[in-house]
Amino acid sequence: MSLFIEPLDWDQALLQRYDLAGPRYTSYPTAPQFQEAFSETALRNAITRSNNAQRPLSLYFHIPFCESLCYYCGCNKIVTNNKSRARTYLQRMIQELALYVDLFDQYKQVTQLHWGGGTPTFISDEEMSLLMNATRRLFQLADDDSGEFSVEIHPGRVSVKTMAHLRNLGFNRVSMGVQDFDSRVQHAVNRYNTLEQVSELSNALRAQDYKSISMDLIYGLPLQTLASLRETLSKVIDLNPDRLSLFNYAHMPHLFKSQQLIKEQDLPVASAKLDMLHYAIHTLEAAGYRYIGMDHFAKPEDELSRAQDAGKLQRNFQGYSTHGDCDLLAVGVSSISMIDNVYVQNAKELNTYQQKMDMGLLPISKGFTLNAEDQLRRFIINRLICHCRLDFAELKTCFDIDAAHYFSAELAQLAPMQADGLLTINSQGIYVHNKGRLLIRRVCMVFDEYLQKAKQDSSRIRYSKII
Questions:
Q1: What is the pLDDT of residue 458?
Q2: Is the dihedral of CA 412, 413, 414, 417 positive or negative?
Q3: 60 is in an annotated binding site
Q4: Where does [4Fe-4S] cluster bind (predicted)?
């Protein structure tokens, strides 16, 4: 039986022992390693290599505006009711796209596109058309509905009519932030959407022929209990989304000011959060969903499940992805591109972003160029986090190394995990067991060279807990 078909093996004592803080590995090296002294020439050279390799493109647009503040949110957002602010921002994003047109091969196809935020549906239907039409004019989008074109929505603040408009523009996948249906929890985090709203919207999306509906939930929110989560999960399962994300709420008010509005005494204790996660995983698996990894669930016939079965699943700044062959070009404030061996992040402040655009400059604030060692370790972490295994023969073929010798120190660090039954290490490679899948971030941390070097640094970066 495939590892990803089997139910997860829950061992609470081991989970508590290994539940350290660590990165989520949407990239390696992780974003704290990005440097302000980053050369635009490095980006241009990376684009040239991408063109020579004839890799397709994934486009990401960061639309930061929200009409209301969700207290738990750690995203880069701008809360405003002034809808006129969106138009000038969209025009600058189109300007940014235009700056890249001459750099990328005109025949490079865009097979994946995502609008994130913020709340992308903050903008009007007319502005949606403006942005999408400009994208099509500047880049070659897959127009036969074979591309994966997705949009994030707040189900309490979007109309069926707008979703029909987005479908006509070419969007075929939706990710909606449900979070929790309990009214007390919703009030505690200032995020509202009723079961009726989500149900009506889900039915409309299916009638409009959207290919995939994904719902985001959060466990560990204030006033949330196992009983309230049970009710929410029951309702979500009845709604029958194709994919689900179940995120751990990480309370980090020192980083995110909005979280200071949450009363710490209202947060569930760590043991209660573990109970919630255990119940949710068991319930979703019983309902026919597979645990893909790191908070993500999908039906067996979903593209994420099929990509994992085929060994083609990848992970990037949007999470798990079926388009691992793409280079990612991200536009808008704070967005992060991943092209060949470079990461590039745009200015995080809206004014700085807009000033650079008004000067005709690429709005880059920092970046990182991966050396050969970084690329090797990125490959390893991606294999482990997506497929829970590492083939030493593949490392020999791709990087010409003897993994057992090269990573002898790392394998020694994994030995206690092998003794605890989380994984197996043999002459062929590393194989993570079902008991270890929830702790895959802990396994990956062993191969994170920057994290290992920072262990003795008292000012090291603070991460959220793994579980």
A1: 46
A2: positive
A3: yes
A4: 66, 70, 73
